[in-house]
Amino acid sequence: MKELPGCMNIRIASRTNQRIIMLNTGINNSGFTVCRDCGAAFPEMIPMC
Amino acid sequence: MNAAYFLESCLSEFNEYLMSYEPAKGNVLLNPEEININAFRSALSENINSLLAKYKIHPELFSTKGNDGKMKYQVKRGLDIAIGEYAPGRAVVVDKHTYQIGGIYYPGNEWKKAPARSFIEAPSYLKDILLCRKCEWFGLADDSIKTCPFCGSGELSLSRQMLRPWKFAPVNAEPVSEAQLSEEYTHVQTPLYSTLPESDG
Ligand SMILES: [Zn+2]
């Protein structure tokens, strides 16, 4: 893994067969509310401040 | 009857029946003079219990499409596209009608009192997520991760849990008018991506 000069948090690497996690964090990162019984779900709307 | 229904609703009754079951003499398949009926009972019960264990980890393998003849449209998208475009609250246009996604649903599970519960209780669907407060790295929670794999910070905390969706379904299974849709819901939500810096190739 190579560092990128001047960028503390960026590294470069070429890879195959990696597990990538994709996350939908909802509107303004507020997530979703999901009913554990029936699966009904809606986005949370916590205002950004 | 589908397998999920049997495992959830009938298994204990079936086990009781099995323990009291006595095959008749001369029974072609289970002749009590030729087989050990006690060994048969415990082997069958053990096999079914191992199915139950598998069902708890991967419920999607057991839910068969029961009476979903009423389903009108089924739109297939890869999970990578669907988690942004079909996320709860989003509007989806199918055959000129607009629907609003209202939840996560598995066809054929309608008979259950709590159709989502077997998924939500399965560790392969609901996962803990670790978040680095410093650099915002995130990943699956794992006891072996003590510091942030990217910046080395020890400020890791459990964030909101991640739910891997099975399928999405529209609110009330019917179209909505444009006026009913709220503006904030309609823009595309870009997913965040994460991977681990180890296992370098
Ligand atoms: Zn970090």
Structure explained in plain terms:
The complex is a heterodimer of chains A (49) and B (201). In chain A, 0% of the residues lie in helices and 37% in strands. The N and C termini of chain A lie far apart (37 Å). Chain A is an all-beta fold and 49 residues long. Chain B folds into three domains: 3-57; 59-112 and 165-182, no CATH class; 126-163. Chain B has helices at 3-20, 37-57, 79-85, 117-120, and strands at 91-94, 97-104, 126-127, 129-132, 138-140, 156-158, 162-163, 168-170, 192-194. In chain B, the strands form three sheets. A three-stranded antiparallel beta sheet of chain B has the order 1-2-8, with no helix packed on it. In chain B, a hairpin with a 5-residue loop joins strand 4 (129-132) and strand 5. Residues 63-69 of chain B have low confidence and may be disordered. Classes of the chains: A mainly beta (49), B alpha+beta (201). The A-B interface holds A 1, 8-9, 11, 13-27, 31-32, 34-43, 45 and B 79-80, 83-84, 87-89, 101-106, 113-117, 119-120, 129, 135, 138-140, 150-151, 160, 162-163, 169, 184-185, 189, 191-197, 199-201. Bound molecules: zinc ion.
